From TrEMBL:
GO terms for cellular component: plasma membrane. Residues 219-240 have a biased composition (Basic and acidic residues). It comes from the Bacteria. Residues 218-240 are annotated as: Disordered. It holds the Pfam family Acyltransferase. Keywords: Acyltransferase, Transferase. This is 1-acyl-sn-glycerol-3-phosphate acyltransferases. InterPro entries: Plipid/glycerol_acylTrfase. Residues 43-161 form the Phospholipid/glycerol acyltransferase domain. GO terms for molecular function: 1-acylglycerol-3-phosphate O-acyltransferase activity. One of its GO terms (biological process) is phosphatidic acid biosynthetic process.
């Protein structure tokens, strides 16, 4: 039977056999909100981004919640021998940042959603540069995708991946064993945007609503108050 929203069974089984035991060995789990992850049907997962490890850790969370995550990855990964082929077969979508092909990732994500996929989306586009690791200002692709498809957006926050592998570091810190905390919330209410022209201002507003929901989840996980205004790396004079 065709499963366009999932990889071939061999590659799925291989990824699970290789990665799941490793994840269980490396991390303790504090997973909450899995009842908000629909078991079937198209869904967009909007998450914060802390570390190069969190796509794999979040994929573990989503897989154990009954979904195979289709995630967006930098196009350079697809050019790495062997790894690029594996990532392709696992249904990852290449992101061509800063090029004329940049919109192709949204087109591919839209097609995946039409096939009933669970698409893992990082609206920030890269690991946060906020000094305290709160979500920063985000790109509008996730809002455009949600509003043009009508697919629900589930906000998912996580904390702990940065302790296993801090952003910018190539050396994992497996000891002592880290705890990966995840909290998913109910779908973001985007009903006030239905039927309205998709202007740049509207997309920014909808994106802010999505990231505010993710930030609230993260504040609950951390037991801390987030900043009133998201960090903007452009205003801070930093490259994204």
């Amino acid at each position: 039977m065709s499963r366009p929203e999932r990889p071939p069974r061999f590659w799925e089984a291989l990824a699970v056999v290789l990665l799941k035991p490793l994840m269980l060995l490396l991390i303790k789990r504090d997973w909450r909100g899995r009842e908000h992850i629909p078991r079937t049907g198209s869904v967009i997962i909007a998450a914060n981004h802390l570390s190069w490890t969190d796509p794999v850790l979040l994929s573990h969370y989503l897989y154990d919640s009954g979904r195979w995550p289709v995630f967006l990855a930098k196009s350079g990964i697809f050019r790495v021998p062997v790894l690029g082929k594996i990532v392709h077969w696992l249904r990852a979508i290449p992101v061509h940042r800063g090029s004329a092909e940049a919109q192709q990732s949204l087109t591919a994500a839209r097609q995946a959603l039409q096939n009933g996929a669970c698409v893992l989306f990082y609206p920030e586009g890269t690991c946060t540069r906020d000094p305290d690791l709160w979500p920063m200002t985000s790109k509008t692709g996730v809002a455009r995708l949600a509003l043009t498809t009508g697919v629900p957006v589930i906000p998912v926050a996580h904390w702990g991946a940065q302790e296993l592998l801090p952003y910018g570091s190539k050396k994992p810190r497996p000891f002592p064993r880290k705890t990966f905390r995840v909290l998913a919330g109910p779908p973001v209410d985007l009903s006030k945007y239905e039927g309205r022209p998709l202007t740049a201002a509207l997309l920014r507003e909808a994106t802010s609503d999505i990231m505010a929901a993710v930030t609230r989840q993260l504040a609950e996980l951390r037991g801390e108050k987030p900043p009133d205004v998201p960090y903007d790396p452009r205003r801070a004079g930093r490259r994204e």
